[in-house]
Write a structure and sequence with these properties.
This protein is of the alpha/beta class. It is built from 13 helices and 8 strands. The protein has an 8-stranded mixed sheet, with helices on both faces. It starts with a helix and ends with a helix. The model has no long low-confidence stretch (mean pLDDT 93).
């Protein structure tokens, strides 16, 4: 090996080591259901802590599920910790259940809220952090609001809905097939009464499958605008203009619910926090493209809010 080549390799090793030394990582079991990763910035005594809550489905601490790997939440955590903010991100309880082949068929939305509260209380019981912020992504936005209330020092919604889940789904159905709106509303009316239903078209089967109706019943009782309005802590609402799942209008509804909240709309950011310059195909493919970087403007907006 030539001297020049050895020198180049040595410099690369030094560069990687310097990046790694910005923070330390520690895996933590909060309880029997919740495992996560804590990132602590080096040389900061009592940093502020951001707890990151994932969105719907069997989403792990890194923002991945099933065959979709983008590492969006891992990149968010690392980006914030590089700014001097401690972060904790965790696997949803269903991730551990799937790994153990022991999925609870009776899992509820409130279970996810219970888990988030457990995480917040776990870190509140310690004296290592000057403040605790909750960051909720997608479904995790509503979960995070409920967990942050009367417990955290600030709340951040990333791609969070401004309406209850039944209203969100009804609007999505209207965009796909207006003829299915009335059957959708009829099915939700039954669920609002606490009654399961089989009275819906086959086209709506993935939404109203009998085994998930109890979960939807539980979830739809919460109105994000009402919850956000009740928070007595600083709140930041962020949404991207290229989000295929949660529109900017949802973020505006949240903002309208709380005069104290700050709204940031990020141009071309999509649901998994990437910047998309191209069309919808590029956007969809990005959900499984872990090589992408998340929005730098997102990192700046969140870190500025927390470190203000």
């Amino acid at each position: 090996m030539t001297y020049c080549l050895r020198l180049i390799l040595f410099c690369l090793v030094l560069n990687v080591s310097a990046q790694e030394l910005k923070y330390t990582a520690q895996d933590i079991a909060v309880n029997a259901l919740i495992d996560g990763t804590l990132l602590l910035p080096n040389d900061i005594d009592k940093p502020k802590l951001a707890i990151i809550i994932a969105g719907s489905g069997p989403t792990d601490r890194n923002g991945n599920q099933n065959f979709l790997k983008n590492n969006s939440l891992k990149k968010l955590a690392e980006g914030l910790t590089n700014k001097g903010i401690a972060t904790f991100r965790y696997d949803k309880r269903i991730v551990k259940q799937i790994l153990k082949n022991n999925v609870d068929p009776n899992i509820t939305f409130d279970d996810f809220v219970t888990d988030a509260i457990s995480v917040v209380n776990y870190f509140k019981d310690q004296t290592s952090y000057s403040e605790i912020y909750v960051i909720g992504h997608s479904q995790g936005s509503l979960v995070g609001m409920l967990a942050a209330k009367d417990r955290a020092d600030g709340f951040i919604s990333l791609a969070g809905a401004g309406q209850s889940i039944d209203e969100v789904i009804t609007n999505q159905v209207a965009n796909m097939d207006p003829s299915l709106v009335d059957p959708t509303k009829k099915a939700f009316a039954s669920l609002k009464k606490g009654q399961t239903t089989s009275d819906y078209p086959p086209a709506l089967g993935s939404i109203f499958r009998l085994d998930i109706q109890p979960f939807i019943m539980n979830w739809m009782q919460y109105n994000p605008q009402e919850i956000l309005r009740s928070l007595a802590i600083p709140a930041l609402i962020i949404n991207g203009t290229k989000d295929l799942q949660v529109s900017v209008d949802e973020a505006k509804l949240l903002k309208d619910a709380s005069e104290k909240a700050k709204l940031v709309i990020l141009e071309n950011m999509n649901h998994v926090l990437f910047i998309i310059e191209g069309d919808q195909l590029e956007n969809s493919k990005s959900y499984n493209e872990s090589f992408r970087k998340i929005s730098e403007e997102l990192i700046t907006s969140v870190s500025d809010f927390i470190l203000k």
